[in-house]
Amino acid sequence: MTLHSVTFQRGRRVILDDLTWSLPATGRTLLLGRNGAGKTTTLRLLSGAIAPKRGTVKIDGHDAGPKELRRRVAMMPQHISSMPRLNVVEQVAFAAWLSGRSESSARSAAVKAIAQVDLSEKGQMDPARLSGGELRRVGLAEALARPSELLLLDEPTAGLDPTQRARFRDVVLSLDRPTVISTHQLDDVDQLVASVVVLDGGRIVFDGPVDDFLRRGQGPDVARMAESAFTSLTSTL
After folding, report:
1. In degrees rounded to 5, what are phi and psi of residue 81?
2. Fewest C-beta atoms under 10 Å: which of 42, 80, 86, 128?
3. Considering the entire predicted model, what is its pTM?
4. How far apart are CA 105 and CA 53, in angstroms?
5. What is the phi/psi pair of residue 231, to 5°?
């Protein structure tokens, strides 16, 4: 999948400026950028939720419209909401059904996805009664239950405590499809992803293996090295 010469703006503000990015066909990729750099916009373009002002999103060399992108790409948004009058299984199944699965297939996919995120025992509960960490796992299950080829995770560990982040990380490490993760949590980044992309000023300023990214920074541990590398690339003070 490729974003080709994509420009996106909101009002007069240009968020992405003639951006071209070919996503890795396998593995996990970390998408970094300062607040407002366009990370969520990039993910939403890839998912078909919004369309570029100029440029195209391509799959296998051909232009892909919103309908095809919604079918082939699943996105976990930053904010997860519980749906009234539905239990956990029903909420995840509904998301799968919206993506094009039949009713029976959606329920089967929901049960499997809920097991993947270790929430089977909460399947009959009202999502509104879950903890913040559990609700985020419901959001991940919704994405996993969709019949997609690419998974996009937008700040998946935002608001989670260290224990919840560790559990979520273990789930992400078990995923078997190409995944793009936008996050500010840089602990164990060398174990979580294979490649890193950094956005700044509406453009990509780094796109390469995680080891090359970390070599641009300094520090006593991986998190500090990653922060230092990010600062050197974006001139963050």
Report:
1. -115, 150
2. 128
3. 0.91
4. 36
5. -65, -40
